Amino acid sequence: MTSGDNKLLAQLIQKFGLTNHESLAPKATELQRLLAIRSSSGTMTNLGDYAKVTLCIDLASSLLGLPFDNDLALKLSGMKKTSYANGRRTLEKILDINKTLGIGEICVQVGMSQMQKEATALLEAYKRYAGQGQGQNDFTHPQYATMAVYQACKREKVKPPKTKLVALSHLKPAQWTLLEKNWDKFLAAVPVGKQLGKNQNRSEETVIVKEKGEDSSGSGGVGRKHASPEKLEPYHNWKKRMLEKAYRELEQLRGSG
C-alpha cells in the first residue's frame, strides 16, 4: 500500500465524518492490504482508487458497527447503486469477511457478551431446523449470527441493539425483516428452551414435522420424513469456489460503474 493510499483513506474517513472513531483507519488499512494481496492478478483494475478505498471504509465500518453514509459513499466512489452493492458483496468474498464475524465478535462489538452462550445455542438449533428444508444455507454469512444474538436478547428480556445488529448482518432492512419472521416461525415450531442440548433429538423430530406440515401426533410420519445427514463441503473447496465466483463478478463490473 502506498503513502498515497494512506492519504486518500484519511481524506475519505474525514469526509464521512468518522475521524473520531480511532479503530476505523487501522481496520480499513488492514482490508486494503489484504485486498491488494488477493487481487494481485489484476482483477481489481476495473475499480478506481476512490471506489476501492470507499468500499474498504464501508466494510470496516460495518465490521466495527459504526454508522455509515451510503448516499455519500455512492458519490465518492463514482459508482451506480447496483454496481456499488455488487462490488461490496464481491469484496466481502475476496476478503473472506463473512468467515471472520462470529457470535463472539458480534457480542463484543454491540456490548452484549453475556448473550454469547444463549445465541450460540439458538444458532445451532436453527441450523438443524433450516437444514431440513430445501436448498442450502451459507451459515458463514453474518446474518445468521447477528439474528441469533438479536433473538437471544429478546428471550433474555434485554433490549437488543437492533440498529447495530442490522448493520453487522450485511442485510437490507427488508431482508432483515424477512429473516426475523423466519426465526419467529422457527422459535414457534421448535421447543428451544434452556435444556436445548438435552432435547436435541426431540427438537430435530419436531422440526421435521413442522416443516412438512404434519401433525406431530401422527404415527410413522416422522420416520418417513427424516433426511439423510447433511454433507458439509470442505472449507478449502468452499473458499476456492467463492473466490472464483467473486473474480467472475468483478469482471462483470468492468465499466458498469
How do the helices and strands line up, and which of them pair or pack?
Layout: H1 3-15, H2 24-38, H3 49-64, H4 70-77, H5 81-94, H6 103-109, H7 116-131, H8 142-155, H9 162-169, H10 173-189, H11 200-212, H12 221-225, H13 235-253
Helix pairs in contact: 1-2, 1-3, 2-3, 3-4, 3-5, 5-13, 7-8, 8-9
Offer a concise description of the structure.
With 257 residues, the protein is mainly alpha-helical.
Structure in words:
The protein has 257 residues and is mainly alpha-helical. The chain has 13 helices and no strands. It is globular and about 55 Å long.
In percent terms, what proportion of residues is strand? under 5%
Alpha carbon gyration radius: 21 Å
Structural class: mainly alpha
The count of β-strands is 0
User: What ranges have pLDDT less than 50 throughout 5 or more consecutive residues?
Assistant: 194-231
Largest sheet: none
Determine the number of helices (DSSP H or I, runs of at least 4 residues): 13
Order of helices and strands: HHHHHHHHHHHHH
The portion of residues assigned to helices is 55-70%
- Using the alpha-carbon principal axes, give the shape: globular
Mean pLDDT score? 77
From the N-terminal CA to the C-terminal CA, the straight-line distance is: 23 Å
What keywords describe this structure?
mainly alpha
